[in-house]
Amino acid sequence: MKKWNMGIVALLAVATLSACSDKKEEDPVLNTEAAITAFTFDTSVEANKIVTSQPVINGNEITFTVDGLADALEIDALVPTVTVSKGALYSFNGSFNQKMTYEVVSEDGSTKNTYTVTCTGSMFKVYEGSLTVTLDGQELAKDLPYNLSLEKEEAGTVKVFISDFSITMDQLGTISLGDVEISGCTPTKIDGGYQFSGTKDMGTLEVPILGNPMTADCVIDVADAQVVNGNLTLPMVIHVSAMGGMLTMDVNANYVGTPML
Predict the structure, then answer these.
(1) Most C-beta atoms within 10 A of its C-beta, which of 38, 77, 185, 230?
(2) Quick one: fold of 36-120?
(3) What would you measure as the largest C-alpha separation in the chain, in angstroms?
(4) Model confidence pLDDT, tens digit, residues 111-163
(5) Burial class (CB within 10 angstroms; exposed 0-12, middle 13-18, buried 19+) of 119
(6) 59 vs 11, which has greater pLDDT?
(7) C-alpha to C-alpha distances, 258 to 120, 127, 134, nearest whole angstrom
(8) Residues 219, 202 contacting (CB under 8 angstroms)
(9) What is the DSSP string of the chain?
(10) What is the pTM of this model?
């Protein structure tokens, strides 16, 4: 019978165990999943107090809402808590106030998913919509396309900004008001959103009256504008006074718009 040297047996055992150990380290099983499994805002964090509805994940779309008076700076300061698949890595790009994307790559690098995060609720947006104009109940223009923005002022009030505001009307011609800023509008809470009013004295402008260009004083009144469920309705009355107040007219303009994406 062969006799084995105990030292040789011990060395063979150690070598076998070492080889098994090396193989385990060299061939790990890496996760192939690349998903965002949770996306939340801890509202005990000061920056996150504007969040009114926690994010909902629907496929590769994530949506959440903030307070209607939250502005772009506050929204961009949000700090989310993101959980992804085991071993996965993620990166992000963009702005919560406009468009934010998250890219998740699996632990083994074989899978990649992109998520779009959308924030709704804030009234301070750029809106795209249309304007309808009437005078004494007669429709003078319909569906005039306009972009309009609502901006938050330091005092917490609302500023309405319309770039190059020109209204072309049948029979009357064009009223060119230039860039219009209506500041100091105080928002009040209503069901589903906010309401505000404001006035802007445009000074003396040249406007068409009775088919002829005349110098006239113009004042724009915004009366009970509303942002409800993200949609903007902004009624305006343009008061026109010429010939020392002897000739007046009120042009009614109603704007309806939705936030630009």
Answers:
(1) 185
(2) Immunoglobulin-like (2.60.40)
(3) 132
(4) 999 999 999 999 999 999 999 999 888 888 899 999 999 999 999 999 999 99
(5) buried
(6) 59
(7) 12, 5, 22
(8) yes
(9) -----HHHHHHHHHHHHHHHHHHHHHS--------EEEEEE-TTSGGGTTEEEEEEEETTEEEEEE-TT--HHHHHT--EEEEESTT-EEEEEE-TTS-EEEEEE-TTS--EEEEEEEEE--S-SEEEEEEEEEETTEEEEEEEEEEEEEEE-TTS-EEEEEEEEEEEETTTEEEEEEEEEEEEEPPEEETTEEEEEEEEEEEEEEEEETTEEEEEEEEEEEEEEEEETTEEEEEEEEEEEEGGGTEEEEEEEEEEEEE--
(10) 0.78
Amino acid at 192: G
Sheet containing 61-66: order of strands: 51-58, 61-66, 112-120, 100-105, 89-94
The identity of residue 90, as a single letter, is Y
Are 236 and 174 spatial neighbours (Cβ–Cβ below 8 Å)? Answer: no
Count the Cβ atoms, other than its own, within 10 Å of residue 179.
Answer: 9
CA–CA gap between residue 160 and residue 8 (Å, rounded): 89
**Distant-in-sequence, close-in-space partners of 50: CB < 8 Å, separation ≥ 6:** 66, 67, 70, 74, 75, 78
Q: What are phi and psi of 79, to 5 degrees?
A: -125, 100
Give the residue from 134, 98, 135 showing the smallest Cα distance to 116: 98
Report pLDDT digits (tens) over 182-196: 999 999 999 989 999
Q: What is the pLDDT of residues 165-186, one digit of tens each?
A: 888 776 667 888 889 999 999 9
What's the Cα-to-Cα distance from 104 to each of 36, 86, 162, rounded to whole Å? 7, 11, 40
Gap between the Cα atoms of 256 and 132, Å rounded? 9
Provide the residue ranges of all domains of the chain, joining segments of one domain with +: 36-120, 126-259
